[in-house]
């Protein structure tokens, strides 16, 4: 059944879309490159990432294969998800801030720095934000 035009995207669709976007940015891919790899337009990738359009099972499978992740990757951290009997609960995924190309690169590069330099950068970021919490 199709959603009404004024209906908000389902939280799962938004979550999956954000996970697609995060992984795409983490891999340094453009929307066009991902779109070409899975046979859709870059506009369709934009709609997937916003959660406006649901990703079909077959497209999710193709994206997972192309990005070298398992399908569960796209659902990890969804607060509404219930773990199965053999799974542990995943930490809640923070949707407050959309990832940017720069924030993804920061998170990718930070672990390569020695702990002392990571702390210096963290202190500098907190100072810039006026956030003195430890």
TrEMBL record:
Record's signal peptide: none
PROSITE patterns: HTH_CROC1
Keyword Nuclease tagged: no
GO molecular function: DNA binding
Keywords from the named record: DNA-binding
Record-linked CDD domains: HTH_XRE (cd00093)
Annotated protein name in UniProt: XRE family transcriptional regulator
Protein's organism: Brevundimonas intermedia
